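Dear support,

We are seeing what looks like truncated structure output for some complexes. This example has two components. We would appreciate it if you could run it in full and send us the complete token output so we can diff it against ours.
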Amino acid sequence: MAGIKLENVDKIYAGGTKAVNGLNLDIRDGEFMVLVGPSGCGKSTALRMIAGLEDISGGTISIGDRVVNDLPPKDRDIAMVFQNYALYPHMTVEENLAFGLKLRKMPKAEIQKRVLEAARMLGLEQYLKRKPAALSGGQRQRVAMGRAIVREPQAFLMDEPLSNLDAKLRVSMRASLNQLHERLGVTTVYVTHDQIEAMTLGDRVCVLRDGLLQQVDTPQNLFDSPVNLFVAGFMGSPAMNFANAELVRGDGGASVAFAGYKLPVPEKIFADKPGLDGYFGKPLILGVRPSDFDEASNGNGDWARMSVKAEVTEELGSEINVIFMIDSPPVEHKDTAALAQDAGEEEDVTALPLAGDKSMWTARVNARSHVRPGDSVELAVDTNNLHFFDKESGLAIGHPANR
Amino acid sequence: MTAVAAGERSTAAGAPRRSAAGRIVDRLGSGLVQLVMIVVALFWLVPTLGLLVVSLREETANNASGWWTVFTKPAELTLNNYARILGNEAFTSSFWNTVLIAVPTTVLVVVISACAAYAFAWIEFPGRDWMFLIVVSLLVVPIQVALIPVAQLYGVLGIFGSIPSVVAFHVAFGLPFAIFLLRNYFIGIPRELLEAARMDGGGEVTIFLRVIFPLGGPAIASLAIFQFLWVWNDLLVALVFADTDAQPMTKALQSEMRQFGTNIDILAPGAFLSLIVPLIVFFAFQRYFVQGVLAGSVK
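Here is the complete output from our reference environment:
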């Protein structure tokens, strides 16, 4: 096993498109690193450069202590799982698993042992003599994993391996992937566009956008303190709510004013976000996670209140997403525009006919609250988790990386 | 099975209207169309059957009455013509010449074109697409324009009239189409399969032999059959380039044609022998025509 180190890695395609731009990433030995971002952000390109399937235009990639820039894929001692599995259709499952070992001239007995071991681990024993065409999607996926496992490589590279599975299977495969990593402890680089996969699988998650690294951190840290508007909006579902706001100083201390609402800003936030006190009287962007709302009757006594009118409610069983309008135009920033475009590509967002001067917010409340569309709701907000972003740069104010 | 499916399709309410050709294709399995196809097949088979019968009758019998009289006088059938022709040195050597021309040509065309097609499809090198365009444009060059220059060239090289010279000509003119066909098939193989093989430790040669070649099976089999048939049945190239020692069966049979009389006792069995070999080849390879070799590899 080995760590993987990317230093100032560039990828420029013929025609001048810069797919990856000065990427620095230090993947530790045994770590599960997830590369996440919207389509076209360069995450797959980065992975393929580590694999050796794409040339590196600039910078260096090392696996262990070895710079691998000019090594062909087979000499890098890594295994890859492809999005569409790429099983050899003319070989049985057993031959598929053994192929890589055979090419490496491993003794027959050892091949046999490893193949059986991997098959047992993945529950493929009874399918060893079948061809891929006779397997279900989930089984094919497991064969693809098995082909990587038998190699016992320095690192696994996975390119959206679960995206062709149906939703239920994806969840269970996600769990088995976690187990597998736990058991084998092999350094893994995993590419996905699904932020839930990223959050659940990654030891650390690397958010990419337009070939540029945005933030690398543990899933919790990404969620709690995103470095900019893009990461804030990308991680977490439903997405973070944004509004143009202003910091004001009043009798009871500082507060943030937006769309006719006024939420107190605790002193602790100023302590945690140095530089925020320089924004008094200046416009900034406020971000509130849907999960930092609750209904006032359930909420903590000292949380701030907001009265809103529920436009749409999404009942998820364990909780309800309350969608409401605030009287302020949607935040316009290149980061939020990129997010909107990405959301439009991947799923049908319930698009309300928005009047230009209103923006849509989502609050997640307890399922016991029985909010109905059209109801007036008194919401409580956990003001300790307010996020503030610079209006020009989109950077989180006071974030360690932006100081 | 097929008939049921066709029935379902035509009764499906609100199904989109299909073109006339599409509807015919849909009905290919139904009774009437099958009947028509049987008639057409018989129409094509009757002369072949006639040839077989003629080859099995003595020359005198053939001169006296038509081959269909065999149905009333089956006792006339004999293997004498075949015995005679197989004992005829000139004929047997021309049969072997045909084999010696057709088999190496087919092997060479398949091997060379498969290698070239792999390179054109999956290896990056400068000028690749231009070179492929040139190969494609060679498809339209008729062989007739090359007969005289190539004959001169063979004269200079001193190989004119030999079997290798005939093989070389066939290979040269078989390659453009072969490369075109295989390259277009290979490019349809999912890129990830090759990348997976590369990650598994395969070099270009391994990928070609262990992944591309098996997956290209149907295309390679069809190419091999067609190439074999073309060369086996060729007369033009043999007439120009093969001298008497190297002449294949087509040319040998042609030389047995007479202005008066027919030599039917040589022509009929010879023609039938030259016909039976391609049939055997076809039936031997036809199981490789199965579709869906790639099923299950991706997604």
